[in-house]
Specification:
- The protein is built from three helices and four strands.
- The radius of gyration is 11 Å and the shape is globular.
- It has a single domain, classed as Glutaredoxin (3-Layer(aba) Sandwich), CATH 3.40.30.10.
- β1, α1 and β2 form a beta-alpha-beta unit.
- The relative contact order is 0.27.
- By secondary structure, it is an alpha+beta fold.
- Strands 2-1-3-4 form a four-stranded mixed sheet.
Length: 79
Amino acid sequence: MDIKVLGTGCQKCKELDKLVREVVAEINVPANVEKVEDIAQIVQYGVMLTPGLVINGKVKISGRLPNKADIKKMIEEEK
């Protein structure tokens, strides 16, 4: 599974990265979690508001910070 956390380094972006890594560890799913801070790469996903969450190439979240339950649900949908 390929997970990308999109964000330029704001507090919400850092929090999303932390939450995603916690959820991946908790549900023990093999995943490559990457933090993408480059604006050009973020825009390629069509994300104009950060933080953003991309799972297996699909934009799941843009412009808000989801809770752990929401993140877990999104990851499990893509398994």
